[in-house]
């Protein structure tokens, strides 16, 4: 007999406009791992959404798994890991956060750590540096979070986000470090008050499931989008076309370059077709909120 773990982690969108580094939403786009213990490490990517060439010791999944094992004083056993991902790299759909959450869960399983949900929130957010994508991948649904100076995460979590989302993925990468480099170091008080008010209204609208109002505040960010817009292919054109076709609102997904719209589910089919016709150079994906977060399925398989 041999043991095999199947780990599924949702990708995520962060910020949704002014919810900078604090609001996240798990999406029904997944990183899936099949893990079994063997004599030597082997990481196999089943698609193009992973590094084509890598040294094991530099692969993010291995780095995280080893880090967590060391942190808990455990010996990490060698594993065979097959990775299938629907999350393109460096596009603003939480690909790195999903790998971090997967690495934590892998070690949790193979080293029998017994991590709590709060442990997973803290560990993943500490590694990411902020809790938006990480909490959404751990919990699914909508997360509104803060992390204190000790790395302890406090999260409001909401499921039943009954709206549809459309992501527009361009064929270019944008590293978070590059996207952060264009942001101001500080804001004047009046400007910061307005930016904070918009973020509060976005959070309240999402919590109330008033998606029309939420869409309006998604487009009212003052913290980062005015400065990042110049880095994003067809930023203005996509905003205008999405609004014309019935979207509640459109914002950067995380640091970009992907954009995301929140739309009424009733118009989803026609909306996607219209946007595909207008932006054929983008990969346009209809999705919804994930409801479950990281999931583990354990199987015992007969050796052949």
UniProtKB/TrEMBL annotation:
Keywords assigned by UniProt, alphabetized: Amino-acid biosynthesis, ATP-binding, Cytoplasm, Kinase, Nucleotide-binding, Threonine biosynthesis, Transferase
Which EC number(s) does UniProt give?
A: 2.7.1.39
What are the GHMP kinase N-terminal domain coordinates in residue numbering? 60-141
Q: Where in the cell is it found?
A: Cytoplasm
**Catalysed reactions, semicolon-separated:** L-homoserine + ATP = O-phospho-L-homoserine + ADP + H(+)
Q: In which pathway does it act?
A: Amino-acid biosynthesis; L-threonine biosynthesis; L-threonine from L-aspartate: step 4/5
Instruction: Tell me if Nucleotide-binding is a UniProt keyword of this record.
Output: yes
Q: Which domain of life is it from?
A: Bacteria
Broad enzyme group? transferase
One GO molecular-function entry? homoserine kinase activity
Q: Which PROSITE patterns match?
A: GHMP_KINASES_ATP (PS00627)
Main localization category: cytoplasm
Residue positions binding ATP:
88-98
Q: Tell me the ranges covered by the GHMP kinase C-terminal domain, including all copies.
A: 203-280
Family from the record? Belongs to the GHMP kinase family. Homoserine kinase subfamily.
**Role noted for this protein:** Catalyzes the ATP-dependent phosphorylation of L-homoserine to L-homoserine phosphate.
NCBIfam families the record matches: thrB
Check the record and name the HAMAP family matching this protein.
Answer: Homoser_kinase
Q: Which protein is depicted?
A: Homoserine kinase
Q: Which organism is it from?
A: Lysinibacillus agricola
